[in-house]
Amino acid sequence: MNADIVLVRPARAGNVAAACRAMKNMGLTRLVMVSPPSEMDRREARALAYGAWEVLDAAVIADHLPAAVAGAALVVGTTGKRVDDTWTPRQLAVEGPAAGRLAVVFGPEATGLRQDELALCHRLVHIPTDVAHSSLNLAQAVLIVAYELRLASVPPAAPEGEPRLSAGEMEVVLEDLRAVCLEIGFLNPQNPEAILTEFRRMFARGGLTAREGTLLRGLARQMRWAAGRDR
């Protein structure tokens, strides 16, 4: 995933270490910090980064937020307040990566990002927690955002033992659908590809299995038989 996690003035070394572990859990490795806590080398803090020490040790230290995000195409700041036009983490995961390199910025645990720092961000993301207990610690917030980014980046897998149809096999299914959809008047004969392209992309997103392709071809045949019977 082409994403940086940026921590601005984190107050506690243990929270940073735990955030590193959350990042590695979800396949993120690039950490940038602005004014990190001084006790990052303490054994107790490093223990919380168990298995993710390389993320912690490779962290880039920046003097200020503009320097921390200078290489990003899209800068998204996190906020504890639900304001107009904020993304949820899921919206961030769907919309954000298309811009290119992404920087997700987290503020200090107690106060969050300052207004001038939020103003530097292109978009804002808010994690919709329950009002009865809305606060999250830093590692929790990083984990939620990183999880959604990972979920959006991993293509759906076909069930085990059922490989997806190849592009050529999918075209055979689409040809059957084209024929029946033209016959029943669902497709515009002058431009059938407009709808068929949507079908093709929809099937590609889902990853059709051989059985699913057979079911669709059977459906097409049954539709043609029913259409002929009604004449």
Could you please describe the fold and organization of this structure?
- The model has no long low-confidence stretch (mean pLDDT 89).
- α5 (89-95) links the parallel β4 and β5 (102-106).
- The protein has a six-stranded parallel beta sheet with strand order 3-2-1-5-4-6.
- The chain has ten helices and six strands.
- The protein has two domains: 3-153, SPOUT methyltransferase, trefoil knot domain (Alpha/beta knot), CATH 3.40.1280; 167-229, Helicase, Ruva Protein, domain 3 (Orthogonal Bundle), CATH 1.10.8.
- It is α/β, with parallel strands linked by helices and 231 residues long.
- The protein is elongated.
- α8 packs across α9.
- The termini are far apart.
Largest sheet: 6 strands, parallel
Spatial strand sequence of the major β-sheet: 3-2-1-5-4-6
Supply the helix-strand structural class: alpha/beta
Q: Which overall shape is indicated by the principal axes computed on the Cα atoms?
A: elongated
Give the CATH level 1 class of the largest domain.
Alpha Beta
Give me the strand/helix succession: EHEHHEHEHEHEHHHH
Whole-angstrom Rg: 24 Å
**What share of the residues does DSSP label as strand, in percent?**
5-15%
Helix content: 40-55%
State the low-pLDDT regions, or none: none
- Overall number of domains: 2
Question: Ends: how far apart?
Answer: 55 Å
* CATH architecture annotation of the largest domain: 3-Layer(aba) Sandwich
Give the rounded overall mean pLDDT.
Answer: 89
State the CATH topology of the largest domain: Alpha/beta knot
User: So, the CATH homologous superfamily of the largest domain?
Assistant: SPOUT methyltransferase, trefoil knot domain
